[in-house]
Amino acid sequence: MYTVTNYPTKKALIADVKAGKEVRVYQPGPWGPDVQDGKGCIEGPHYPKPHKWYAEAVIKDGRVVKAK
Question: Among 4, 24, 59, 66, which has the highest number of CB atoms less than 10 A from its own CB?
Answer without folding.
Answer: 59
